[in-house]
Amino acid sequence: MRVGVPTEVKTDEYRVALTPSGVRELVDAGHEVFVQSGAGVGSAISDDAYVAQGATLLPDADAVFEEATLIVKVKEPQPPEVALLEPRHTLFTYLHLAAAAELTRGLMESGATCIAYETVEDTRGRLPLLAPMSEVAGKIATQAGAFMLEKPLGGRGILLGGVPGVAAANVMVIGGGVVGMNAAFIAIGMEATVYVFDRNLDRLRELDIIFGGRADTCFASTLDIEERLPYMDLVIGAVLVHGARAPRVITRRQLSVMKRQSVLVDVSIDQGGCFETSRPTTHSNPTYEVDGITHYCVTNMPGAVPITSTYALTNATMPYVIHLASVGVARAVGESPGLKLGVNVAAGQVTYAPVADAAGVPHVDVDEALASVGAEA
Question: Do residues 57 and 46 lie in contact, with contact meaning Cβ atoms separated by under 8 Å?
Answer without folding.
Answer: no
